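quick one: citrulline bound model?
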Amino acid sequence: MKFKSAIVRTPCHNMVHGLTSSDLGIPIYKFALEQHAEYINTMKSCGLNVHCMSADEQFPDSCFVEDTAIVNEKCAVICNMSELSRNGEEISVKKKLTGFYNPSKIFAVKSPGTLDGGDIMRVDDTYYIGFSKRTNLTGAEQLKNILVHFDFLTEFVDFDHCLHLKSEVNYLGDGTLILSKRFQNKPLFQNYEHIIVEQDEVYAANSLRVNNYVITPKGFPNTKKKLLDHGFDIIELEMSEFQKLDGGLSCLSLRF
Ligand code: CIR
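yep, here:
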């Protein structure tokens, strides 16, 4: 899958009040900005045009744009995020997307459906839709009904141990998934090659394929070695300040 563009959003000062389940401490804003700038540079060096939205202090978690929409070469679907502190982030993202999509190709998941983009993993023409605490069956069915119109297949994935599906499973292209041990035996994923991430490096399961590169978080040597052994060209990025808010590499952009 070749990406041409990415939408990102500058972290806001209020990110220090972002949602988290980690005990890694409060993000240091200055470092978050530096890491975000490096993320943008990396996306550019992978060949993407990067469109950066300005920081929005109203929404502490708004740099995690991936959760606000599902985007592909045919359509965009605006998410309905169940977390109150995040609900509303999608409004400005929708506005931004009208610069790229005909309004007739922009859809939305609506209440009582809830859905976060972090639960949606595309593998070629199939979308895996994860049921987390944030994504419910109604939201998943709404998304499925939209995507089938554009000839995409969908599969539902049950799990209950992590924030989002893509917190622990990601498609790296070439028939290969990178995933945690907890997902490795899921029958749905048996037809792919697996790169298994050990529990002490589980954050690195959120590694991201962008065109010719796999971007992976810095500080996870065993995962790095597995990616290199597999033959991927990798780029490592420091993500410490986003990890403090449970955010990974994929969360920081919408790619299409
Ligand atoms: C949240 O809990 O919503 C944010 N602190 C982190 C969102 C991470 N997004 C993602 O995994 N796609």
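Residues 169 and 179 are 4 Å apart (CA to CA).
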